[in-house]
Amino acid sequence: MRGTGPIDGRRRRWAAVVAVALVCSTALSASPLSAAGRDPSLEWKPCPKDGRYDCATATVPLDWTDPGGRTIRLAVVKRKATDPGRRVGTLFFNPGGPGGPGTVQMPQNYTTFPREVRERFDIVSWDPRGVGNSTAVDCFASPEESEAWIASRPAGFPVGERERAQWIAAYRELGRACERRDPELLRHVSTADTARDLDWLRRAVGEPRLTYLGISYGTILGATYADLFPDTVRALVFDSNIAPSAWKGDRPGQDRLPTFLRMGSDRTAAATLERFLSLCGSTTVARCAFSAGGPRATRDKFAELTRRLRERPVGAWTYARTVADTVNSLYRVHPGWTELAARLQQLWLGRAPRTSSAAAPAPVPVPYTGDEQGAAVFCGDSPNPRDPGVFHAAEETAAARHGDAARYWTWAAEPCATWPVKGADRYLGPWNKPTPPVLVIGTVYDPSTPYEDARAMAEELADARLLTHRGYGHTALLNPSECVQDHVSRYLVEGVLPPPGASCEPGRPPFPAPEPRGGVATGGGGTAGGVKRPA
Q: Which phi and psi angles does 440 have, rounded to 5°?
């Protein structure tokens, strides 16, 4: 899954999502730097753009088996506990991806963390190795070269033989360019490498055991950490999970499927899209602009729109771009679903919709996060077919079962077919080292990571409790439910798990009624001042 939360000025990334890594030796559970007599530490300073956050730079080995060799930098950010007198410790956060820069996405999404968690924990995140403001995979000599590469491949996914050839050639060239620039870095950006970095950061902030929240790809990172460092786990929350067995592809026949089809991303995206259209059709156009007056009519309207766009794009809005935008816009219900409905209605009317690039400001310079950063982790870790020619057949098979969204998720993994490097330290399991209980959260209508993957994660870990979020969107963190937040807070602060079989309803349904604002409408006298949608 791609990183969550918007990044102003960031290029769109193909939706790569998870990773793993191979255990080198049990001796690596103890840090080579510590063994060399250099205990980890961080020098915190106020971040350059927002003094409420503190920033630091860590220096770690590129190759954890060679601590005296080349080093790389990790950009780190912290928001201190707002109630320091009741502080519990440090909560580490990974925003997913792979390729999500934590120095940007943690601050952008800070207010979605449960209030008690913000009060009682310092929240720390970082740009994983290869990403963003850390030592990054960057395969282009200039922004112009990067933009030319982006223009060389179809938006969304390829449609037709000519576009398939363009797509495959573009990603083959991207891999070659990355290998030419820094092949050594490409070999050492695996999830296991990042898990070892996380353990270094844990010790650098003085925590004897890790408290962690990982979303999407961050669940695989957390599971990898738990197996490499089981004795230093305090509490782990995994939200919107990838099944480790699907990531690894270790079940019969799975290695012949692209990762996202192994995970079931095609299936869950189709179910979430169907739910979006049905709920839209069940309400008025005032609440959902794309409504056709009924669930079935609205689903038929979407099918007709995509058929039209195949024949006649609206400006730059092709069929594939529209499908990709639809899947990605299902990630965040508020305001994403309402805004998506408005864009679809504009396309229905033959008008090219405007897209918003607005994003919450970051306390650090917004970094470059091109396709190659997620690809380096994803393709280096998770097995995918090495023959680009198999992806069209896989697309057609998946689309026959799950529709348009399946095409998007099939081609999202194709760049790995020609990616030139495998991670030197890929972790291949097992995933069942004994640890304190892990809290696993699965959302029923998630367009990226299926609820079934959350169940699989809970089963594959040695000790885990599954909490079902009967809501919508990708991650319960970014689609808050007060019920989920209460369970997360109790678990992180007190170590209390939800009861077996616990479930939570979403905080706000999609397409809510406008809230009245002003005197008469709110009972305050005077004149009503119009309406506003909930923030």
A: -110, 125
Cβ burial, residue 307 (10 Å; 0-12/13-18/19+): exposed
Count of CB atoms situated within 10 Å of the CB of 527: 9
Rounded CA separation 487/201 (Å) = 26
- Of 480, 442, 473, which Cα lies nearest the Cα of 459? 442
Q: At 189, give phi and psi (nearest 5°).
A: -125, 25
Token pair recorded at residue 467: 């909490």
**Average of per-residue pLDDT values in the chain:** 90
What global pTM score does this model have? Answer: 0.90
Residue 253, pLDDT score:
67
Scanning 382-432, the segments in alpha helix (DSSP H) are 390-402, 404-412
User: 115: Cβ–Cβ under 8 A, 6 or more apart, which residues?
Assistant: 485, 489
Helical segments of 95-216, H only: 102-108, 115-120, 143-151, 161-181, 183-186, 191-204
Give yes or no for residue 517 having a pLDDT over 60.
Answer: no
Give the span between the Cα atoms of 440 and 463, in whole angstroms.
10
What is the Cα–Cα distance from 278 to 35, expressed in whole angstroms?
Answer: 59
Beta carbons of 273 and 326 less than 8 angstroms apart? yes
3-state secondary structure of 137: coil
Measured distance CA(264)–CA(453) in Å, rounded: 8
| Cβ(227)–Cβ(195) below 8 Å | no
**Strand partners of residue 465:** 439
Neighbours of 434 (CB within 10 A): 11
Cα separation, 327 vs 474, whole angstroms: 10
Tell me: pLDDT of 523 over 70: no
Q: What's the CA angle centered on 494, arms 492 and 495, to 5 degrees?
A: 65
Q: Count the residues in the chain.
A: 535
Fill in the DSSP letter of residue 334: T
- The answer on pLDDT for 149 being more than 60 is yes
| Structure tokens given for 48 | 């350059």
Distance between CA atoms of residues 31 and 356, nearest Å: 44
